[in-house]
Amino acid sequence: MSEMFAIVTGASSGIGLSLAKELASRGYDLVVCSAGPRLAEATAAIRSYGTEVVEFNADLATREGVDAFWNKVVSVGRPVDVACLNAGIGVGGQFWETDLEEELRMVSLNCTGAVQLAKYIIRQMHELNAGKILFTSSIAGEMVAPREAVYAATKAFLLSFAHSLRYELRDTNVTVTALQPGPTNTDFFHRAGMDDTQVGTEGKNQSQPDDVAREGLDALFDGKDHVYSHSLTTKLEGAVANFVPGAVKGAMHEKQAKPQSEK
Q1: Domain spanning 5-262: CATH 3.40.50.720
Q2: CA dihedral sign of residues 117, 120, 121, 122
Q3: What residues of the chain score a pLDDT lower than 70?
Q4: Are 178 and 162 in contact (CB under 8 A)?
Q5: How far apart, in whole angstroms, are the C-alpha atoms of residue 185 and residue 59?
Q6: Residue pair 4/27 in contact by the 8 Å Cβ criterion
Q7: Where are the beta strands (DSSP E) in the chain?
Q8: Which secondary structure element, helix H or strand E, spans residue 37, and what is its range?
Q9: Inter-residue contact 141 to 180 (CB < 8 Å)
Q10: Stated pTM of the model
């Protein structure tokens, strides 16, 4: 058993799986969570690094799912040293055409579930005056994002939430970092219905999830407030985000997110 203990949500694939593997490679025991059948295979991959890994399948878009996951974490009987709140989904398309229930579920998972879980984690960390939290936001949280309007808004919420929590905790030994990846080679765009887009084809190949996870955790352990990851394009977009007019950012995003069949 390691002396270090971490939790990762959305750990069955993509950036979440890479975060869990990276933490395991650094010697952390883990409780990992996701919804669906892929978690068992992911857990086996994480265990190959030689640390203890507990898997827990829960729907973190529901209050009951978050409570069940946190109760599992508490049952391990160890304080959480690192928490990666990564679970999230996307929905692509024009807002007047997209499915309302899918978008409300996205808000429940990306925002509401993150707030609920963060409440439990931070209360524990604050009491112990120790811990590190990584929120997976997105470069989209600083963009004008046509065809991903609600998704980008959820990521802007997480970014603001992370920055505000960090300030509240400034006089403690609890730190908060926001990870802001750009397009990454995961199944995110397929699940968001964006296979037939520039960003969902060649665009996502700008970054690999292992690189994003490594850079995010490096920023976390260095005590940084956020990190743009991983491609040079994402870093440049982040650097100029506050200086580029909204119409220009919107046009850039529209080009990437528009179905290629409409071009």
Answers
A1: yes
A2: positive
A3: 184-206, 230-263
A4: yes
A5: 24
A6: yes
A7: 5-9, 29-34, 53-57, 82-85, 131-136, 174-181, 226-229
A8: none
A9: yes
A10: 0.85
